[in-house]
Amino acid sequence: MKKVEKYLFPKCIEECIKMLSENKGEARLVSGATDLSLWIKDEKVSPAVLVDVSDLKEMRFIELVGDKLVIGAAMTHAEIASNEKVKKYFPALSDGCRNVGSPQIRNVATLAGNIVSAQPAADSVVPMTALDASCEIVDEKGARIQKIRELPKKVGVSTIDPTKEVMTKIFIKIPKCKYGTAFKRISPREAMSLPVVNVAVMLMADASGVITEARVVASPVDIVPFRAKKTEEYLIGKKPTEDVFEEASKLAGEEASPRDSLQRGSGAYRKNLVKDLVGQALKQASLTLA
What we know:
- Helix 2 links the parallel strand 2 and strand 3.
- The protein has 290 residues and is α+β, with helices and mostly antiparallel strands.
- The strands form four sheets. The chain has a five-stranded antiparallel β-sheet. The protein has a four-stranded antiparallel β-sheet with strand order 11-12-13-14. A three-stranded parallel β-sheet has the order 1-3-2, covered by helices on one side.
- Helix 9 packs antiparallel against helix 10 and helix 10 packs antiparallel against helix 11.
- The protein folds into two domains: 174 residues, Uridine Diphospho-n-acetylenolpyruvylglucosamine Reductase, domain 3 (2-Layer Sandwich); 111 residues, 2-Layer Sandwich (Enolase-like, domain 1), CATH 3.30.390.
């Protein structure tokens, strides 16, 4: 087993990129390290160098910039969950971050790390997908903006290379129209337990209250967070009524195709959970559309 030989603390993003480049694939980016430390212990990865960005001021902020809420990539789940701007504009994200792990985990684990780790059940990534969030990724060639929903490739693998690239910030556009968000989950216990199913929704409506856009996301029912596209299409053009939401939740349950799991229960059981949680989330998100 290769041991970590150096633990580096860059003073800026530019220096961080330089450190990764100089170590030619032998270095890995680290902040909370709640996943990475386990991977190193289990010898899934063997970096010689760790580059710690947890205290970079350029990545430690939450602020409104124009029509977007911007979150620095080194912000922890606890900081995001308790932030007043996040709670005001995107309560689904606040609720998702509040459900990650234990208080100890939330105090060190970052939202960006959760995204890069690409675990389909991640409680904070599901609402990020429903919110259609984007992120800035920086490497030697410069910066690019990419949708977060495009990042996961399969379980545990994202398109971001942590030996070369740095996610620096996350962008969530604040709609000008009426909108609402909600996050729901069910798990064997309240803390330190992976979700059996979690769901996030975002609804947007015109001045008369008719739904103009909908995003409904469920997990872990696929290898990446699952968009219930038929459900979303059904909701568009309709008023947010109990009958509409009942039909939409049925569609979501039918669309989802979770496999049987010894840990999480049968596929049929979890399809029913998707249906119930989508119904609850739609009702909650619709409260701000009136």
